[in-house]
Structures are given as C-alpha cells and as structure tokens.
Hints:
The structure holds two protein chains of two kinds. Chain A is of the alpha/beta class. Chain A is built from 13 helices and eight strands. Chain A has helices at 9-14, 16-28, 44-48, 52-66, 77-86, 94-102, 106-113, 133-138, 154-160, 183-186, 188-204, 215-227, 237-244; strands at 3-5, 33-34, 71-74, 103-105, 126-129, 166-167, 209-212, 233-236. By secondary structure, chain B is of the alpha/beta class. Chain B has 22 helices and ten strands. In chain B, the strands form two sheets. Chain B has a six-stranded parallel β-sheet with strand order 1-10-7-4-2-3, with helices on both faces. In chain B, strands 8-5-6-9 form a four-stranded mixed β-sheet. Chains A and B meet through helix 1, helix 2, helix 3, helix 4 and helix 8 of A and helix 1, helix 2, helix 15, helix 17 and helix 18 of B. Chain A: This is (Fe-S)-binding protein.
Amino acid sequence: MKVALFVPCYIDQFYPQVGIATLQLLEKLGVTAHFPAQQTCCGQPLANSGCERDALPIYQHFVQTFQDYDYVVAPSGSCVYHVRKHFDKLDQTAAVQHVRGAAYDLIDFISTVLKVDTLPGAFPHKVGLHLSCHGQRGLHQANESEMTPVRDGQLRRLLASLDGIELTHLNRNDECCGFGGTFCVSEAGISARMGQDRVADHVLNGTQVLTGSDMSCLMHLEGIVRRAKMPIRVMHAAEILNGVVA
Amino acid sequence: MNHAIRADKFLLDADRTTWHDETLWFVREKRDKAVYGVPEFQELRELASQIKNHTLSRLDLYLQEFEAAAQANGVHVHWAADAAEHNAIILDIIRQQGATRVVKSKSMLTEECHLNPYLIQHGIEVVDTDLGERIIQFRDEAPSHIVLPAIHLKKEDVGDTFHTHLGTTKGESDPQRLTEAARQHLRAKFLAGQVAISGVNFAIAETGGVVVCTNEGNADLGVNLAQVHIAAMGIEKIIPRLTDLGVFTRLLARSATGQPVTTYTSHFTKPAPGKEMHIVIVDNGRTQQLGRPDFRASLKCIRCGACMNTCPVYRRSGGHSYDFTVPGPIGAILSPNIDMKKHASLPFASTLCGSCTDVCPVKIDIHTQLYKWRQVLGEANEIPASKKWGMKFMGRVLASTRVYGLGGQFARRALRLLPHGLTHATSFNAWAVARELPAPPKQSFREWYAKQPQPAPQPQPKLPA
Lengths: 246, 465
C-alpha cells in the first residue's frame, strides 16, 4: 500500500506539528506515508472564491503529484472533499479519477481503510469535538443533526475509546464554526460572530481541549480563543491521538 | 452595498443578534424533533424531490392541464410574464368589480412583484391579514423571512407599532393583548373586504384546484367573505395529482415550524355560487432559471424557510441583509437569476456548510448551487477586483512548488519579525478584527520533513506528457 501524505498549504506553513503528528500516527498504525515534496494546495481557496478556472493548474499539479499512490491522506477533510467533489472540472482521465477516489481525510482513512475505531492510550481531559462541515456533511464522517438525534461519528468513536477522556456535550453539536475559507475575511463580521458563538458553547459546557480533524476550522477557532484569552487548548485530533498511542 | 456591510449593521446590536439566532435555532430544533418522529422522513424528501423534478421536466404540459381543469371549474385563468403584468392583471380585476378594499393573505409572489405599493398607488386599500405581514405593513418594511415575516421584531417592537397604528396602551408588550388588538382591527377589515388575494402553496394540475396553507385561517376568512378571490401563483407551484399533495403537506409544516401540519390546509377549486375566482399564473424570471441546468432545481422550492432557520449566517445577519424578497440560502441562489450585479454578494454569504441542503424537504442542492453561482459570478467579473487578481496571483504561486515554498518562507518570516500591531492592523487585515493570526513556526512541515532520514524510496511521480 503506497500512501502519500498531503499536508495542506496552511498546515505546512503554520501548523507543521499537525503534519508531523499525522505522519507519526500513521507510522504507529503500520503505515509509512511519503511526502511528495512538489505538493502545494488543492485549489479550494480559489474555487470557493469563484475563480475555479484559475485553480485548474493547481488541480492538475495535485493530480500529477499524487497519481502514483494508492491513497492520499490529509489531516483536513475540507481539502479532501474539494478534491473528491470539485475535481470534476478536470478531464476525467484515469489519473484524475484515481486521485479523486484515493483522497482520504486522516480520520476517515484510519476508520474506513485501516478499520481502526479504538485506540489504546489515555487522555484524561474534557474534550470538545468540533465537527468540520465538509468532513461531516460532505464526507459523511459523522451523523448529522439534520437527520438524526444520535451523535456518532468516526472521530467521536476514536476519542471515546481513550481512557479517562470526557467528551463535551455541546448545545449545538454540529453548527458551522464560520471559517468558510475566504468567507472569513469577506464576511469577517459574521465569521467572527459564528466562531465566538461556537467557542462559547464549548466554554459553557466545560471544554478544556477543543479538537477536530480539520485544521482550517481549528485555525479560526484558535484565533478567537487566543484573542479572547480563553482557558481552552486547541489541538488537531492527530496531535491528541499521536500523543497517546505508544 | 453588499451582504457583508448590511450584516455588519445587524451585528452591531450584539444582544439582538443573539436573540435572533436563538429564536430561529429554536425553530430549527422544533423541526428536528418533528423530523425525528417520522421514520420515513428521508424517503418522503426523496419522493417530493422526484415529484418536483418530474413536474419541472414537463412544466408546460402540467400548466396547460391545470389551466383547462381550472377553467372547467369556472375559474378565470390569467398568465403574467412578469411582475408588471401580474400587477396590471390584478388591478384590472379589482377595477372591474368597482372595488377599493382588498384583503390579502400571505403571498411571497405578491411581495416579489411589489403588488401592495402598486395597488395603493392606484387608490386601492390593501390590508395584509397575516399577523406578521400586518405588523411589517404598518412599519413599511419588507418581510425578513418567508414564513415568519416579522421575526426580526421583538414583542416590544410590535407593542410600539400597535401603539402607533392601533392605539394600544403605550409600553404594552403582552403577546395575548397585542394579538387581540390585531384581531379586532382585522375583523373589521375582513368584513369590509371586497376582493381577497391569496398566494398558492400547491396547484394541482389534475383538479385545477389550488391549496393554501396557513396557521391563522386568514386566507379562508378573506376568501369566504369577499365577492372575488384572486390566487397568485408562480409557475413552479404545480404538482401533478391530488394524491401527490400529502407528500408535500407532510414535509412542509414539519420543515417550516416543526408542526405536523399547518392549522389550515385550504382547498380552493371553484367559486362559490354568485362569486368569482381568478388564478394568475406568473413567470417573472422562472423560465429563465428553468433554462439554467445548474440552477433549475431551485424551482423545486416549496417555501418552507427551513434553510433560513438552519443557516448560521442568516440567523446572525437577519433577513434584510439579503435585500431580496426571498432571503437566506434559497434566496441567494434565486436572486442572481433576477439581477446578477445587484445580488452578486449573496452566493458568497455562506460558508458552504451544507446544512441548508440537508434540511431542504425537496432536496435542493443549495450549497452546491451557491458554489456554482460563485463560478458564474467570477466568470462574469461580478466579484471584487482585489479578490479576482489576488486569486489569479495565488493560482500562479500554488501551481509551482518553488514559488510556493519561497512565498511561505517569506510570509512566515514577515509575520515573525513585523510588530503585532502591523500584522494585526484591522484596516487591511479583516482576519485580525476578532482573531489572532497563527503563531508562525520557524520551519514549515516540508522544511522539517527534508531533514528527516528518508524511509523507503518514493515512487517517482510521472511528469506531464
């Protein structure tokens, strides 16, 4: 099984520790992932801004970079969703179709491909799980409150299997954090308010560590937590899981 | 003025924003409870979606079938290509009666066509009889929600409005007393109404009848007291058979307010003896939307408002921030069809979280259409030039490993070295208004990776041919 690690551009530049944790966690689960150095980005920021045409060279670069791998794993469901759903704009060559199907969010890869839904280890903290909309509603990694009252999902199961962990029961289980890519600056007021409300739900219900599998949501929420100097630590799920698994 | 600017105005009153968000979230939760209680709800959505898809694919035929059946029932059928024709037809019917007093029940179509100001301008008294509609009519405001038109107002606001217009005690904000005042006021209007105008929730091709769903019974009261009933409908309101109706009535109220069904589901098929019934069938841009394959499905909408109640942006920006008759996610995919330049910011007033799509009772792929409108707007140069050129530049950077790597190094170094006050200056960094930037690390992931002992040799990526 040839596995490539895709480290989205903003994680590469701002959150290298999340890329490192992803690589090390996969290693501990028996998967040696390679990082093809020519990779850049999935092109989502451009396409979501209405500039899909300008993103096509990025899409092509992405496909060329990853076409020889069986799986492309990224610690960001949003980028994976973009590759799977919106690379339909490219000519659907065998390589394009392969890469679209091979792209996996890290937690999805662990759950679906490696078929792991419990992990040994302890994390004795109260943990608030932030569901990324693209992971949840786009990639179906978790149940949706629009459909069912049952709160279940891949990352919830993995986290719940850790010793000593307590998962926060949020008032709103799956409301969007308001990051939304360039939305966070073009609609800065609403974006900030949504993030503040999301963080407030965690504070109200006692979250000590706020986590999720999509670093873009967490970048936004961390920015709000740090600005308001709230006593909450923001960590990508890969950091938690890599930290507890021996 | 774009959506973000109007939204910022709404956000200025933080407490009201909280109240607005929580009020609509309460409606969304009521909807959830109602939906969870129907095990076949997802099948119903699929069925409704297919019925609508089918109907839209044969819309011309069903409209003709409807017209023939309605005429056979003794109903006058009129066709209006646009808002102007719709308004002129209705004024003409009113004048033929020699009438001057009109009572209206809820109709988003007449809002879309700006019928009220048109009739008033021509000397007709128009009274909206839906309570929420009457409140905003007093205030000369547009509805901020398609099901809950006055949801932007608190009971104190209503008290002030009624004090001014109905003479209730100053400071009175008891909902029971205010509603009673509206009842007494409207009762007189109902009794005096000569022509009743209603909207249409569903028009049944097979029977030629129209169905109007209300909670207040005001459509029935208006229609049964007046000499003439005019029902105004968009061409997309058609469903094929009476037996299809149950699919939609089971979905509509649950999705809208969490009720199992609206209090009144009124069927109007033929005029009562000695009375008249008219149906005005309106296009007003709908066939143009039908001709856009990517956006056609927006015409499946049954106007339940669930996408507004669930939308985290709508709940915090208010309906008026959309500046379009139908606000919220569905409005953001309908409005560019009407005026692409004016409404260019609406498809961007979304995080594309997808909740709208998941609550939509007829499975309109709303967030996908928002994404697609963005591309249409980008191609038509209807996005800000700074964004367009910024994205072109970013496209070049991100298509090249080398340029990307150097750019990243430069940006992180700049972030580390420049003072916080500069990197977080809100005059040019909207991110920093409410958020800290990530602390820039010394090395990127790729720089770290390059220093690691490399594992097994990597497969050589194929170069482009």
